[in-house]
Amino acid sequence: MGSYVIRRLGQMVVVLFGATVVLFAALFVLPGDPVGSLGGDKARDPAVVAELRERYGLNDPLPVQYGNFVKNLAKGDLGEDYTQRRPVTEILAPKLTNTAKLAVLAIVIDIAIGLLAGMIAALFRYSFWDVLITLLTTMAVGFPSFVIGMVLLSTFSVKLQMFPVIADGSFNSMILPAFTLAILDAALVARLMRGTMLEVLKADYVKTAVAKGLPRRTVLFKHVMRNSIIPVVTYLGISFGSLLGGALITEAIFNWDGIGLALVMAIQQQNNPIIIGVVSFGVLVFVVLNLLVDLLYAVLDPRIRLA
Amino acid sequence: GGGDDKGNSADGGVFRLGITEPTAIDPFNTQESEGTLVTHNLFTGLYKVTPDGKLIPKLAESATTSDDGKTWTFKIKAGTKFTNGEPVDAESFVRAWTRVADKKSASDVAYHMAGIEGYEDLNSGKTDKFAGVKAVDAGTLEVKLATGDFEFDKKTVHTAFAPVPKAAGAADNKAFNDAPIGNGPFKIEGSWEHNKKITLVRNDDYGFEKAKLAKVELTILNPNNTATLEYQGFQAGTFDWARMPTPQLSVAKQKFEPKGQWISADTSGINYLVAFNTNAPLNTPDARKAISYAIDREAIAKGVFQGMQKPASSVLPPSFADVYQEGVCTTCVKQDTAKAKELAEKSGLKPGTVLDFGYNTGSGHEEWVQAVAQQLKDVLGLEVKLNGKPFKEALSEQQDKKTAGIWRSAWGADYPTADNFLFPLLATGSINEDPATGKAQGDNRGRYSNPEYDKLLDQARATKDAAARAALYKQAEKLAVDTDQALIPLWKRTQYRLANTAKFNNVQMDFFEDPNLAEISAK
Amino acid sequence: MAELSKTDEAVDAPAEATEEKAIAAFEAPVERGEPILQVRNLVKHFPLTKGVLFKRQVGAVKAVDGVSFDLYQGETLGIVGESGCGKSTVAKLLMLLETATAGEVLYKGQDITKLSGRALKAVRRNIQMVFQDPYTSLNPRMTVGDIIGEPFEIHPEVAPKGDRRRKVQELLDVVGLNPEYINRYPHQFSGGQRQRIGIARGLALNPEIIICDEPVSALDVSVQAQVINLMEKLQDEFNLSYIFIAHDLSIVRHISDRVGVMYLGKMAEIGTDAQIYDHPTHPYTQALLSAVPVPDPEVRENRERIILTGDVPSPANPPSGCRFRTRCWKAEDRCATEEPLLAIPTRFKGQDTPAAHVSACHFAEEKTVLAV
Amino acid sequence: MTTSNLTEELPAQRKGDDETPVLEVRDLHVEFKTREGIVRAVNGVNYSVKSGETLAVLGESGSGKSVTAQAIMGILDSPPGRVAKGEILFRGQDILKLDEEERRKLRGPKMAMIFQDALSALNPVFSVGNQLGEMFRVHQGMSKKDAKLKAIELMDRVKIPAAKARVNDYPHQFSGGMRQRIMIAMALALEPDLIIADEPTTALDVTVQAQVMDLLAELQKEYAMGLILITHDLGVVADVADKIAVMYAGRIVEQAPIHELYKRPAHPYTRGLLDSIPRLDQKGQELYAIKGLPPNLLKPPAGCAFNPRCPKAQDICRTDVPALVPVTERDGAELVGRASACHFWKEQIHG
Amino acid sequence: MTELTKSTADSGTAEPAAGAATATANAEPAVARITQWGEIRHRFVANKLAVVGLVLVAVLFLTAIFAPLLAPQDPYHQDLTNTLADPSSAHWLGTDALGRDQFSRIIFGTRIAVEVGLASIFLACTIGIVIGALSGYFGKATDSVLMRIADVFFAFPLIIGAIVIIMAMGRGVMPVIISLAVFSWPTVARLLRSSILSVREADYVHAARALGAGTSRIIIRHIIPNSIAAVMAYAAFSVGGAIVAEASLSFLGVGVSPEVPEWGNMLAGAKDFLGVKDYLWVYPSIAIVLTVLGFVFVGDGLRDALDPKLR
Ligand SMILES: Nc1ncnc2c1ncn2[C@@H]1O[C@H](COP(=O)(O)OP(=O)(O)OP(=O)(O)O)[C@@H](O)[C@H]1O
Ligand SMILES: Nc1ncnc2c1ncn2[C@@H]1O[C@H](COP(=O)(O)OP(=O)(O)OP(=O)(O)O)[C@@H](O)[C@H]1O
Ligand SMILES: [Mg+2]
Ligand SMILES: [Mg+2]
Question: Can you tell me the ipTM of this complex?
Answer without folding.
Answer: 0.76
